[in-house]
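Subject: for your reference before the review

Hello V.,

The reviewers asked for a structural picture of the protein, and I figured it would be easier to keep everything in one thread rather than splitting it across files. Below is the amino acid sequence we used in the manuscript, unchanged from the supplementary table.
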Amino acid sequence: MYSEWASLSAQITANSCGAQCFSVLNKFPASAGREVVVSVVKQLGTNLGITQNAEPSHLVKDEEVKWCMDVICFGLSLPLQEHETIKDCVNVYCEWLTALHPQPRISVPKPICEDANLYARQIINHFHNLFVPRQGESADTIKRQAVLCHRVLRTLQQTAQISQLMDRQTWDTLLLFLLAINEILLAPPTVKDDVGDQLCERVLSVLFEVWLLACVRSFPSPSMWKTLQESCAMWRHRVALVDQWNRVNLALTARLLEFSYGPAFPQLKNADEDGQLIPIGMSNDCVAQTWYRFLRMIGNPTALCSPHIISKSSHFVQWALTHEKGAETHQHPCLQQLPQIFLNAMKGISSQVDAFLGLSKTSLIGLTGGGGARNAISSSANTTAGSTGPGSGLEGSATAPAPTTPTSTSGPPSASSSINSLPLTSMGAGVELAVARPKCNSILHVFHEWLFEAAHIGGDTWRQNRKKQACEASKRPSSMIMEHRKGSISLSQPNSLNDPQSLPPTLTIDKYESGRAEAIGTLCKIFCAKKTGEEILPVYLARFYMALQQCLKITESRECDETLASILLHSSDLFRLDLDGINVLLPGFIAALEIVLPDKDLKLKTQSMVFNRTELRRSAINILLSIMVLPLHYQTLPIRDLTCETSEKMFTFIQLKSRLMNILMNALQVETDAQNTHMLLGGLLLCVQDAVTFEETELGGGNANLSHNSSGVQHHDANLLSSACSERSASLVSAGTASLGGQTTATMGAGSGSIRDTASAHDYPSLTISDDMSFEFGQELEGVTTYDNAHALFVRATYLVCHRLISSWKTDLNVSLAALELLSGLARLHIRETDALECKRAVKWICDYICYQCSRPPPAHSKDLHSTIVAAFQCTAAWLMQHPYLLQDKDCLQTVLEVVELGISGTKSQSKGTDIPKFKDEKELKPASMRVRDAAENLLTIILEQVGYFPSECGPESISSLLDELALMKHCNSLVPAAAASSEQAIAKFKYFVTENSTILALLEEPLGNDQDPQPTVTLLIRGPFGRHAWTMQLRHLPRSKSGIKYHAVNPGRPIPMNDVMQRLDSEQKNFPDGVDKVQPCVADYSIPTIEQMREQYGTAGIRELESMLENQSIHEKLAWAEADTSADSLSHAQECVPPAVCHEFHAARLFLSHFGFLGFETRNPQNPAEALGNPPQRPLIVLDTKSTAFAADLDRLDKLSARTHDSVYVFYVKSGQTSAQQIIGNMAEEQSASHDPHFASMLQTLGWPVQIAEHSGWTGFAHNSWSLKGTPEEQLKSTASELNYNGSQRVLYWADVSSEIAFVVPTTWNLRYNSDTSDSGSISSTDQIGSSNVWARGEADSATGLAKSKSRNLSLELDTNRRDVKEPVPPTRRKGNVTKPTLLAQAPAKIFLVWLESYEDYLNFPLEDLLAYTRTGEELHTQQLPRASDCHVIFVHSLLSGLLRVKLQGPPGRMSFATPLVDGMVLSRRVVGNLVRQTALNISRRRRLDNDNYQPPHVRRRLKVQDIVQKYKMDLSEAELLAHLFQRAI
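And here is what came back from the structure prediction:
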């Protein structure tokens, strides 16, 4: 930079030799000169005002002053034994220098005041004598000399600061003087505790601070700058030089950032005293010029790695020549500090890079703290460097333990290296960089030469260059050897000095590894700061990749050194930034991960390495998550080796897959940190999901011939994932490269395989994305998948996670939840060769986990523990729903039902298989908590009602009947269709009863339009906690097969009557046998009186009356017979008999209730828990009064409480640079859709099924039109503008399983208009809201969405959002169920956003607060607290150029905020993005519910609502009144 300018080094050398500081007294004997000095200086000293009042000086002429100065000049060079005399000399000169001050002291001679600059220059030069080291002095006298030197330096510095008189010549003299005294004190080799050692930091700090002042007052000439640069090169063996250099550089950088990037840029926070370094008047241009010159002041820091260069000054040569045993210059003990100095230099550069990137955290304060001179860059608390006493610096701390041991130099450097200097964020994705940071190229232009050279120190390339340079040096004249001003190692390496054997053991090249690690870590930080779309020069990328490849070389001992640790710590983002050609480093990084992650105890190269191993593992896991999907994405694409031209060593991506899987599995097996485990679990599900979807779409998707792979040879053992692919599979994949052709670039295609819901009768559109792939590749890949396929991953993942869940993770809430979420995700995978035994084993492990958690001692039972139990019940339900055949297994069924019993009652009936079962009525109900009981009830309902039957004929949008009273009455003959509009009229036709205080029975006694086969028929609408169900029952005495055959012939085929009448024989009718009179009567025969006796007893009147009646009756009968003979109905004219009319009048409700045992009125025993549950206890049936006008509304509110949880996810598309809500919403307008990334639309299709709102009976994302009957008038929304896509006005994306529903809404401007319209008058009244919301909260409330796993009904409008804790009143105790007063609100409703970013950096400016207005569901209208931006969860998805997707998660801080499977920083394949986003959204909601103390599962809310209805409308009827009520007809 100053090559054309002359150096002033000769002038400095002259000063050092004392040419200008020579006094005439030197001509006389020393004793005579001393006596003159003592007498003269003592007299001058008395006038200074130190011991007595100051007096004006008697020196009034120039000659007098010059004579005295000549004496003082000699006095300053006296031996240190004359301390008092020297002190007086110093005092006199320091006083006289006040002539340059605005107010000179009174004792300053008049000539000096008149020409202050001239005399000041002479005084400054005379001071040089004071600083000359005296040989052979004791430590005490050296300290006295140091004190006087400090006084002079302080005076000079103060004078420079406050003087307004100094001219340019005086400034130059002062600077040259400071350079000269630094030269004389610092250039010689360091000797412990000599004056140079004691004054080192002080003289350097004064030099730099005065130099900065000169830059403002009198900017030094290029010659001065060149001289400074050359001088500093001679002092590089001093630790303090680099310390002070860093200190000044950081202070200048802080000012540079202020005016270059504005106040918004993160401020570089230095120590307070360092903030004073920069003079107040320094202009911006001056700061920039000074900053660059200071930065280049010490030359290339990599020269510090070559002791031969540092030690080639004349002072070292002199030491070597005078050494008693003879030695090389580079063997001086002080050079053992070089590794530490090199490290400090690299840390200073690293800190400046951090400042430019916006990483200027308070952790950098340590760099310049401690007396303004120390340089402890790291924020690590373990660093000893920089924490010793003032003035000692790193030098003292590094040499104090043992100056000759290797650890004394390599230990502290590593301890304070970059390992901990960059604390990672909570989810491990790195710290936030400044938005306005400079481009990577700009930073590299400044620092690349030093950083790249430092990164190669000790590497193969470096060694080769050294050999080459040594050969060249041997051919050059020896004069070239001493050339050291070029700042490059390459020009100064003679062969004779290059022999590593001649170096002491503490200076071998491996001792510089800490500095090398700092350099490569800094390079990683720079390249990881690349923004979306930013270009980095190919030459920089090439050099960076070469440096990384050198640093990632693994030694045979497979140890982790500092360089490797530094790379991993700072490369978290390297593979997710679209860096050109970055994948060439993939094998190297995988090898590094194989060292760090799989082993529990990390092998360290030196035990002195001190860093946070958890952070190192976290960063390594981040890298792993960003490369996990590459093998299946690029498949057989080869990875070229940077250094090897032959193709023998080339890998293909697919060959790396099993190595990645092994790293992941082994890392998960040994990981102990909760957050790291969470990240690994997310990555594991990503791998299995990606492999399954890959096989399903690519391998199985249109290639039926490949299906034999699933039925062919299957390896089910746990070692399916070998460390590397077999030779056969490797060769197959390699061979596949040629045939694959141009199809390695994945393109989006239609999903060829559809997501199969268990026992589904509906064909839903596929939720997978297929990449086009050649058939040949499928055949070639077959060999690989046999060894490493999705089924193998599934088996190993299931086994590993279940095992660790039981053994290690059961006590940690977050890890347990993440593991259970992963197991739920595995359960949903459709693997062609699913192993029933594995699934059964997984369910058994989860049940064992529940048993263990329930059996823990009472002190361990906490909210967190119960949350894990609830989540485990939900996980069990997921497995049973997806694998219904498990319930056909007797052992599995018993295991599951035992766990359900344990959850509901608190104990098992049989603790062991040999125990006698304890029956239900003998057990005391003591569940672990109400939340656990609710979860167990929910699982039981799913087992009994849903497993194997979901989705029903209605589709997954409903798990309940879509019929209500109105719909049933439309099919009933008795209701005129025109009158069918009123639900009150329909309800009047039903009879309502409540049983078990939780189930409402609505009974209709009319057959539904079936007159052909009238039977006693009853139609039931059952409204229970788990939904609404419709049943129709008939009482039949014969099975349908027999009772259905009827004979309706006109002629029954009777025989024709015979008209010939047979002759009748007249015979006398006898009442008694003939011989009756011969029987001897007994007393009993006389008990019945005769007529005569009656006449005697009662008289003849009664007898006569009876006789007349008999006679009259006889006459009437004869007349009747005569009339009958002549009528048409007589036997002679008889008609054929016909069956009577069919009876349509049945009391079917009474029959049903009687047959099903509801009319048993036995008194219940209140002491029996099983009988005490009913309310009221004396009666199993409660009659409801339906005459109230509010009954229909309350029934409707019950129907509008869904039995499943529901969530909404809002999808936004952000174009590059957009920051306002209006712009983002405008992207979804129809005219803008053409400019979208095409993959965005594909992702939308994989999130859910598109449904028409008007025909949809599930959750729509809006409270007013969800769960409505298809085709009912309220659903016919008026059509809106054509730009609407999935905004909820006409269509929405929907997905559901047995326990939860989720709607994906893409808001447009319509959503804002709709929200403003409904904010005044919602479609649901506030009383309705309150009626349904007052039952949502509960003190011991249950878990997340999974608890609603039972039948949800798509008709019911659930006015509480699942996790949006709408009004969460705290009800009275659960059992009373009488919840009528809305009380406390639990927490504000939360939102989940899915944001597609064209430019990744836009996530920093995402207008979350403004977009909340577009995301209302109608449920917030009556809550007391609206959602806040800080409560929102945002999933950012950024599309990389490779076709992969980068994920960024943002959410409220909390113990359970982040759910799996998505992890912050993860890189996804497009095949799985929809599935994983959906699972993550559901899991976030589940966790939020688990964490909410007042959350109630849907079935609990419905049960409490039923109890509320019972309290309002029950009729207290006696048994007789109840029976009478049953005989009354409905209206």
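For the response letter, the relevant points are probably these. Residues 1100-1126 form the longest helix (27 residues). The chain has a mean pLDDT of 74.

Happy to draft the paragraph if you're swamped.

O.
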